[in-house]
Specification:
single chain, mainly alpha, two-stranded parallel ribbon, 2 strands, globular
């Protein structure tokens, strides 16, 4: 199910929301000029974690792993980035969006249960 093109596209949107949420948190952390550094830096850190650490031969990615990690570690990274986006919204003072984001992520992971199981086995 998780390799369904619609679900893969949805996962991509969830990634973008998580990165944008990190930027929103960065914009609300301070009022000074460092604010713009955080707006850029926090999403870049999240995207770097997302893109660099991968399970070799992951069918939902290119199959290549710049830094190979076990599936359980990749799952933790995915949870940290995706649910970290929801947490970022919470700490940015947007609790309704944070709860909505977390609920959507839970539904996605239930629908993509086969990916979660695949990661736990690899």
């Amino acid at each position: 199910m998780s390799l369904n093109p619609v679900l893969l596209g949805f996962r991509f949107l969830l990634e973008l929301v998580a990165f944008a949420s990190a930027g929103v948190l960065g914009s609300r952390m301070t009022d000074g000029p460092g604010r713009w550094l955080l707006v850029v830096l926090l999403p870049v850190i999240a995207a770097t974690l997302w893109g660099v650490f991968a399970v070799p031969d992951d069918p939902s990615r290119s199959g290549e792993a710049p830094v190979a990690v076990p599936g359980a570690i990749r799952l933790l990274i995915e949870f940290a980035v995706l649910f970290g986006g929801a947490a970022a919204l919470w700490f940015a003072g947007l609790p309704r969006l944070a709860l909505l984001s977390a609920a959507v992520l839970l539904v996605y992971h239930v629908l993509a249960y086969d990916r979660v199981l695949w990661l736990l086995r690899h």
